[in-house]
Amino acid sequence: MKQIITVDFYFHNLKHIPIIDVRSPGEFAKGHIPNANNLELFTDEERAVVGTAYKKESKERAFEIGYEFVKPKLNDFISKSIEIAPEKEVVIQCWRGGMRSNAFADHLIDNGFEKVYVIEKGYKAFRNYVLQFFEHPLNLKILSGYTGSGKTEILHSLEQKGQQIIDLEGLANHRGSAFGGIDLPPQPTTEQFQNNLFSVVQGLNPKLPIWVEDESKSIGKVIIPDAFYLKIRTMPVYFLDVPFQERTKHLVDTYASLTHDKLQEAISKITKRLGYDKAKFALEALESRDYYKVVEITLFYYDKAYLGGLQKREESTILKFEIPTVNPEETAKFLMSLTN
Length: 340
Prior knowledge:
Blueprint lengths: L1 E4 L1 H7 L5 E3 L3 H6 L6 E2 L5 H13 L2 H12 L3 H11 L4 E5 L5 H12 L4 E5 L2 H12 L6 E6 L5 H10 L3 E3 L1 H5 L17 H13 L7 E4 L4 E2 L2 E2 L2 H9 L2 E5 L2 H12 L4 H10 L1 H4 L1 H12 L3 H20 L7 E5 L5 H12 L1
Parallel strand pairs: 1-5, 2-3, 2-4, 4-5, 6-8, 6-11, 7-8, 11-12
Antiparallel strand pairs: 9-10
Helix pairs in contact: 3-4, 7-10, 8-17, 12-16, 13-15, 15-16
């Protein structure tokens, strides 16, 4: 049995069923439904050939060429689909829920699959669904503080204590500064970052507190969805005012063990913002392994930038707290006491 379903129906009723994305590897890499399995009908090169035939010759010619590409793979499609969905119940999706997903679904039905669901309008519908989803109300608690306040570690402590959190920097594979991507895996595309964020938020209770770190619109190269970012910018902020020296110490502990050349490269990137002289001093301090001096020089810049962003908020939405040390465990307990 083949059934056409909406994205909404899939997420409310069929999330437990394996999903196969039959788009090309390049399409899949740009963005996909989290937990989807890529079993491409065409390689990237084959898709380009079919697309060119469609545009320059005819739909019929494109179909002929496509069939020639697919024909040798038909048995392989079945064996790989069974590996993914041994119960022979599966969801299929392509770009617009058209020819590729329906042809693949029919092939599975003809070869013993019992229930095959095709997502109507495919990945394109999913992307629209994701962006609309972020417009729904969320009980966000915005964790704010100057660079080095240990906000990410506090988030993780909150999570360990049973609180709901969203780790935007974890999803982005980036710590959110010029130094943020050093020694971390490559960042996802913006599309995939947003898809993964959707997946995390969807699993949370929107009525209960959800702790999230105050961020810029972009984290490294990825961009936070507009509707979600608007929530971050307009909801009350819990600003943790941690002394400069405490933050310096914490940042030295975090960054001193990272790759030296990449630290040097990061300082060079912000030369214009630091000022030539300060950047020169920072690079000299790095060369002599004086990490405290490096952090002190760069922290003055980041504090000024962060304060500028904070001042754009409504003053009445900023809840300021003096926090004497970087102690994620104790700070998490304190924050929980404010919201219970």
